[in-house]
Amino acid sequence: MLDIIQTVPIDYFVYLSTLLFGIGVLGVLTRRNAIIVLMCVELMLNAVNLLLAAFSTYLGDAQGQIMVFFIMVVAAAEAAVGLGILVMIYRNTKSTDISLLDNLKY
Amino acid sequence: MTLAVFSILAVASVLAALLMVFSKNPVHSVIYLILGFFMIAGLYVLLNAQFLAVVHIIVYAGAIMVLFLFVLMLLNLNKDNEPKKSALWKIGAAIAAGALTVTMVGALKGGMQLQQATPNSSVGLVENLGKQLFTEFVVPFEIAGILFLAAMVGAVLVGKRDLKL
Amino acid sequence: MQSLLPLIPFLPFAGFLINGLFGRRLPKTAVGLIGSGTILGAFLLSLAVFSDVRNGTAMEQTLYTFLHVDSLQVQFAFLADPLSAWMMLIITGVGFLIHVYSIGYMHDDEGFWKFFAYLNLFVFSMLLLVMGDNFLMLFFGWEGVGLCSYLLIGFWYENRAYGHAARKAFIMNRIGDLGLLLGIFLIFNTFGSLQYREVFEGVANYQNNAWIPTVICLLLFVGAIGKSAQIPLYTWLPDAMAGPTPVSALIHAATMVTAGIYLVARCSSLYALAPHALEVIAITGLATAIFAALIGLRQNDIKKVLAYSTVSQLGLMFLALGMGAYSTAIFHVTTHAFFKALLFLGAGSVIHALGGEQDIRNMGGLRKALPVTFWVFVIGTLAISGFPLLSGFFSKDEIFAKTYEHSGALWWALAAISGLITATYMGRLLFVTFFGEFRGTEAQRAHLHESPAVMTIPLIVLAVLSVVGGFLNTPHFLHLGGSEWLSHYLAPALARPATPETHVLDARTEWLLMGITTVLALLVLVLAYAVYVVRRNVPVADSAMQPIARLLANKFYVDEAYDFLFVRPLEKLSKMLHYYADIQAIDGVVNGVGRASQLLGAQFRKLQNGNIEYYLLAMVVGAALLVGSLFI
To answer: What pTM does this model have?
Structure first.
């Protein structure tokens, strides 16, 4: 089933991956709800995973997939802790609007 | 035929991502993201990264997204009524994101000579990955375990109501 | 003997150090003894030096090389030739007498030890001035005496007016010093050295155009104007009477003010190259002599009269210098030191007896209460007026004769007029102070007493010197066994007189001139007696003066003119500069830098506005830029 290497040039994966990444960035910058922002971060991570896996297949090197594995590990841990913090913030400010978190200023 | 499948999966994932970003209801956003994850899992399968595809679905779609949904339910955010951002901000964000995308495309594309002696078809298989993981990458593997421990402890602590340990 | 030469100035310097550092803890007797003893020692050593250089040879002693920059080499060295030896004698001799007098006069003062320290420092500086063998040493001493003058005039510093007087003296001196410095620079530029011997050798061989020596001489004379209180820089000297009377006697009568005369006499060979400069000197001297004498006619402070008298006599000395009669000028310096110090110390005795009173309108009839003071004051007055056979008679007459020789009858007449005015105001001073009824308060009358011996003995010594001092330089024609000793003694050190031999006066003209001035002076004294004693005329109070008298009493309003012309504009300029240059420009720049960094910081601070979305945007933009710059 490795005709993907012959039929689909690697560039397409690059475009797809960066497009997904760009959409994730757009979401982070645009949305105010903290949960949506966290989800967009997950999307960005996934875009990177996709690209890594693609390169791993196209180069025949397993290291790319190992990296994906570890990125997933980190993403999971980060999502857990991030959501925990979010719950704590909600308890304190009764809202998930990130524009309310502006105390770290001069 | 592979190209067609790839195109469909790609378009679907992009659409899912867009819908997720621009959806008003956060629950809808979560659903769309799950959809997007499934599409990406399909792409993994296309790349013969079977282990990765399965793990992807289990971890992301099965665990992380469920966690998101739980939190949404906890915060009772079924209807999002966040104030709208100014148009200027949105345009600025779009330009920034677009710039980043274009820059990265420019950086990554072209001039990539992929020399593969023989397409190694067993790269994505579990045994292969397992062998690599437990020989070359055993230290990061163990450290990942410690990372999880730290994350668990952190999440429990952060989520406590009162701070008496 | 040569190696003892440095000891002469360093004895007073040692006295200054001891009294200055330890005088506060020493008993007053010890302070006075140390202060006077060092001067006595210097005087005895000066006598020894004098006897060695009498035959005309000079002594030199170099201590060390003071300055060596490129082609300029200046030694810290002493020169003892007839001129400097004579000045040393005057300085240490009269200085010693004044030191002894001060032991009595300043006895009740808290700053007794300070006074003697300053006086010793002054004598040290003055000795450096006259003993130096190059112009830089002279300048050292010049500045040193200026400093000591400031310290001593403002001795009673708690009184603001005295401090202002001291400041005025120093500043006016400084103006003159600028001229002196420029002259010294030009001397170095023209002759390549600052040492007297080398400069005067260069002068002897000088062939270039005459305007350089003229400029040098005029610049040096500017310095002399400042130091010796000639027009226009004389107004500090009357104000300097704010200092204690011994200071007035030593510094502003006998020694410091004669530094200018010494300078011109020392550079006599240089002045021989510049006859125009000599003319300027003569005109200035004559004008000052008459001008100051006129002001002295209507002054009512006993010390101010004597101050203007000093200015006037200095004018006569400069007139003599201008006539090329350098040894005559030094002769008058000598006799003037005697009788002016005598008059000042006598005035000090009067002030001491009256408990600080200085206005002669509140004095009178003191001759019975203060006999010694009265008689020495009479001698001093007669000496300065030119009473026959006293010291002033010989020296003034010689000046008048040389004036007639050099410039003719008109100048002689003007000089003689200044002499007559001198006799007038001195007579007025004597008669109003010592004759008639006592016009002071009852408390003062009860307190009247003659001064103690420590004050009267120097007075007597000075009186004796005022009487016999004239015989130092009696002219030939008087056939009194006169030998013109001083002129011959000083001749090796001075240039030849300007008048060529053919113009020497014959004996008949000299007798005639002398006779006229003497008779007129005596007449004036008798007139003064008539006015102030017989007719009991007393100088009136300030408000009741006639217009001309008021003009004279207010010193022709010169001080006010200076204030208006120079002081006020300078103050305004200073204020303006302070505001524009200091506050606005310099402070503005310095504060501006601070303010700019504050503003910049304030702007940069706005980056940290706490807004998460803003931070995220910044991150994305930064990442884009980073990727773009690194990979494209």
So the answer is: 0.73
